[in-house]
Amino acid sequence: MSDDDRQRREERPDSTGPNSRPRDTTIAQTGEGIPDDSGRPVQVDEAEAKRIEEKIREI
Description:
Blueprint: H1 3-11, H2 46-58
């Protein structure tokens, strides 16, 4: 790769599409740090939690 190609590549943005996020950042909620667009907390009632727990213990 020539120096001119390298320079042009560095000047190009990481992404120009509708989801223009940098390529080296996570899109998952499990990434490090405080999420800047986190999802809503999961709502589970007690009966559902108990059913899930029993199902897991059966395994």
